[in-house]
Design brief:
Blueprint (H helix, E strand, L loop, with lengths): L7 E5 L2 H7 L14 H6 L4 E7 L9 H18 L4 E3 L3 H9 L3 E8 L10 H8 L1 E5 L23 H13 L2 E3 L5 H10 L5 E5 L13 H10 L2 E4 L3 H4 L11 H12 L5 E3 L19 H10 L4 H24 L1
Parallel strand pairs: 1-2, 2-4, 3-4, 4-5, 5-6, 7-8, 8-9
Length: 324
Amino acid sequence: MYRDHLVFDGHMDTPLRIIDEGLDLGVRHPDGHADLPRMREGGLDAVFLAAWVDPAYAPDRAMARAEALVAAIRGAAEAHSDRAGFATSATDVRRLAADSRIAFLAGVENGDALEGQVGNAARLHALGARYLTLTWMNSNAFADAAGGEALHGGLSDAGRELVAEMNRLGMLIDLSHAAPSTFWMVLEATADPVVVSHSATEVRGGHFRNLSDDQLRGIAANGGLIGINFFARYLAPGSDTIPNWAVIVDHIERVIEVAGIDHAALGSDFDGFPTLPEGLRGVEDLPRIAAELERRGYAGGDLGKVLGGNWLRLLETVVDEAAR
């Protein structure tokens, strides 16, 4: 059943290793969570590779850092064009999947990348970035972050302008890391569905990075999706022990139960954290997630939505539609 569905991961931080460590994605590595051999072993068809901009690059080196990371994503696809390709739309993802190649999409993480200028979103979009995570752990000129300083009570005036600009561009708004105040203000302001690319739920306890049931319902009403993060600390906050990998499916099921099957997705955050759940090595083990979903009764179209169909739908709804 697994190989019958398109598999789409909404967030990996692997580009940091490419640009900072000189990682060759084409070679299998004994460390880290992802490379092309393991992506193929895991049956991955598409992935948003994150251009994470450390706040240390603000205020005047952040845009250059984002541009370099997006260029590294594109360069990795070009260097391994027999197995991968750079994608900017659902159409591209389908074309590459039909050619048995993995689609690399670029998402920029942290609004600091824009250096306070709404117009820089268009620059990133022109380079191929198709989502922007408004915040990271820090609040910025546009929005307040979960766990960050409350600078604006949610969105600033510039943040509202940014939401409108991203709607115009057809660029997905990513609310991972966003403060609840930011979350609700964006849902009120946006004309498009949003994504929460790499977060978890409160099924195993509260964490400032996890979404409440009310937020899950908000995403459902908006038409967006939640990509479940695989970081053990978010999956079982406050626990003294590392949880078993099947806890990932507990969080997926929470989204399904509260928001519905159309809003649950994968957003591993591979290569972006130190501790995986027990029994999970990296992207090569994605079939385990699918097998556990099947064991719990998900099959056919419902299984396909969680594994990748919902990400593809959001690309079609926001990105491809804007291009048309």
